[in-house]
Amino acid sequence: MTDPLVRLRHDLHRHPDLSGNEGPTARRITAFLHECGPARIVDGLGGHGVAAIFEGPEDGLTVMFRAELDALPIQERGDIFHRSGREGVAHLCGHDGHMAILAGLARNLADDPPRAGRVILLFQPAEETGEGARAVLANPRFTPLRPDWAFALHNMPGLALGHLAVAAGPAACASVGLRLRLNGREAHAAQPETGQSPAPVLQQLLAWVQQFQPGQDGRLATLCHLNMGQPAFGIAPAQAELWITLRTITDPALDAFERELRGLTETLARQYRLDVRISRHDHFNASINDPAAAAIVARAAAKLDMPPGDFTLPMRASEDFGAFSATARTALFFLGAGLDVPSLHNPDYDFPDALIAPAVRLFRTILDECQQV
């Protein structure tokens, strides 16, 4: 195999790193970027983030393209020669492909620098936990790099290979994980009334979760983990723990949804005389596409004869790219990975190498469109 971008993608796939521990991946990317001769490289952004800066000869706006560094804590099951070499860790969301695409844009910019302004290629850490984008934005070293325009793609199984989906407005849902811990008092199983069991609270919380199913009002609650009591038939339980993910189309709607669940949990805990602790995890902002940024992507795709994709927006899953919309005009779009392929986060998913070259051309055309605005 001679294509250096495909080789890079396969190397990244063999050596995945989890969120917050992407140092080896960042070093691989940095070594590749040095060969492309950017004006400078800034590392250590929000953890292990890396940014390559390419500058044009004239003043102009700053355009950023983003890819993700991290992999998933899932055992890969696919039968491919470049499968993950790390037990229980794998690139099953296609971030290896996203990095290869951005590396290809770096090579393109080395040969054909921007006419004006700056181009930032950001390889971002910790996307899978929702922490990375906000950590990059909070890093003082990123402040002078903050872009006027920011773009990111995500490969999408179930969408025809190479077809593109983009629109103004919501592109990916907001979400948050809530860990609910309930604590009462054990009792003999023959006298459960003498204790304080979390079971009635669990029953009502589970009924509440079941109200929110896909395709109803834009709100989705998913039970992800449940544990109660000890594995013994003689003891009525005292402790329980639930992990629930909440998902909405906008950030304000997510705030309201979270308040509703917290309020219900605290009310039930008081009713059944239980202590309750609630902690917040994996918070993702909604990704809301700026109309002008989405239009730039659509024009670029049309120039390259990329067919529009049949894909319902917003994507139900979350993507922390939305955090960049606080300071830039952003667009997140989706590039088809094929119709009859495993879904994202499936143990046998593998990013299609055929997407790399057209996605590089698309990113470059988006840049050219930005410089004409």
From TrEMBL:
Record keyword Transcription present: no
One Pfam family in the UniProt entry: Peptidase_M20
Keyword RNA-binding: no
Keywords, alphabetical: Hydrolase
PANTHER family for the chain: CLAN MH, FAMILY M20, PEPTIDASE T-LIKE METALLOPEPTIDASE (PTHR11014:SF169), PEPTIDASE M20 FAMILY MEMBER (PTHR11014)
Protein's name according to its UniProt entry: Amidohydrolase
Native species: Roseinatronobacter alkalisoli
Source taxonomy: Bacteria, Pseudomonadati, Pseudomonadota, Alphaproteobacteria, Rhodobacterales
